[in-house]
Write a structure and sequence with these properties.
elongated, 31% helix, two-stranded parallel ribbon
């Protein structure tokens, strides 16, 4: 009988980058390199969940794969669909932890909001996910596995394809930088998922050292969770993020390597009576006016009623329009981002695992 200590765990192929998969094929399976492309295609383009489906592999190779490797998808525990067409998937990971991912309907396609951590350590005062605290980082296989689960759901229901990705779900992506970069590298593979860097946006509160590494990778453009036009107000709304002074953060973003038509996006959640006045708009112009950027204005989305009293109020819609018009009058490209999926707690800042969902 084989000693239990000698039994090697199976390798999750979804958690291997292209180069790592090649090393596994050549060194572990003792197969020619061209098998890597075949496997990669089945895993990421065809969405195969079982080696038996890989029809261009020999029976012996499929048997060897079944013995040494696994394809571990996140399992769909719950699906909720909003009246506006937004879809929220609650996914169960291999260790039983759960996360949420959101599919947002656009003109003829979907954009997926991806999670990078189970929970979040940042504790921003307006975000439901922050109330969960941080459980752990997600692996590349778990991060990119969300896309496989989403594509399967869309195909099953004959819905439009997935085209864009935003890393704006649970967690702070730059606090899981290694797995984020591995995920972005995997996404860009022409033989696999094939989603170009211009279609992938990484949302972050702003961590200068990690932003430098992300910029050097050339794999994504950042969207910065700003939410306040001054250091003092940011310290109240985002106390952990504000440990990085605004001037230091903006200097790091000024150095971010952008392609010709790219700009840094600044996300600004508007909280009624807190950061939504014309005086705040003037401060924001002073902060961003000379920078290569655009601003997304997002009205605050209160948490679901069962979680307790909302800490903030939504802004007045007319005030939001006035705020937008003021920024535009100062030549700052500004958009009001429509909140989608509020009725299923899938809007920005609402992701939180709720018992009994």
């Amino acid at each position: 009988m084989t000693d239990a200590a000698e039994i090697r765990p199976k390798t999750d192929l979804l958690n291997l980058t292209r180069s790592e998969l090649e090393a596994f094929v050549v060194d572990e399976l003792k197969q020619p390199r061209f098998r890597t492309a075949q496997l990669w295609h089945w895993l990421w383009q065809r969405g195969a969940r079982d080696f038996s489906a890989m029809t261009n592999l020999s029976g012996a190779l499929k048997a060897s794969l079944a013995e040494r490797a696994a394809i571990i998808w996140p399992e769909v525990d719950l699906v909720r669909v909003s009246t506006d067409g937004t879809i929220k998937l609650m996914l169960r990971l291999a260790d039983g932890e759960k996360i949420e991912t959101v599919l947002i309907p656009m003109a003829g396609h979907y954009t997926q909001c991806l999670s990078t951590q189970v929970g979040c350590a940042m504790g921003c005062t307006f975000c439901s996910t922050g109330e969960m605290g941080l459980t752990r980082n997600m692996s590349m296989g778990e991060i990119v596995g969300q896309i496989l689960a989403a594509r399967a759901h869309l195909a099953q229901h004959n819905l439009p394809p997935l085209k864009n990705l935003v890393f704006m779900g649970m967690g702070e992506p730059l606090m899981n930088l290694t797995e984020l970069l591995r995920s972005l590298e995997t996404l860009g593979s022409a033989e696999g998922i094939s989603i170009a860097s211009r279609r992938a946006t990484v949302s972050s509160v702003g961590i200068p050292a990690a932003l430098k590494i992300l910029g050097e990778s050339g794999l994504a453009v950042p969207a910065i969770s700003l939410h306040a036009p001054t250091q003092e107000l940011r310290e109240k709304l985002m106390p952990k993020a504000a440990r990085v002074p605004l001037d230091e953060l903006l200097a790091a973003l000024d150095r971010y390597p952008l392609k010709q038509r790219e700009r840094v996006t600044y996300e600004y959640i508007m909280l009624g009576g807190v950061n939504d006045t014309i005086a705040h708009a003037r401060q924001l112009v002073k902060l961003l006016g000379q920078r290569r950027c655009k601003v997304n204005l997002i009205s605050y989305n209160p948490p679901p009623p069962q979680t307790g009293k909302a800490p903030y109020a939504a802004p007045d819609p007319e005030g939001v329009l006035a705020f937008e018009n003021y920024l535009r009058s100062k030549h700052i490209t500004t958009f009001i981002r429509r909140s989608m999926g509020q009725d299923i707690a899938a809007a920005c800042g609402q992701l939180k695992l709720l018992t009994g969902e």
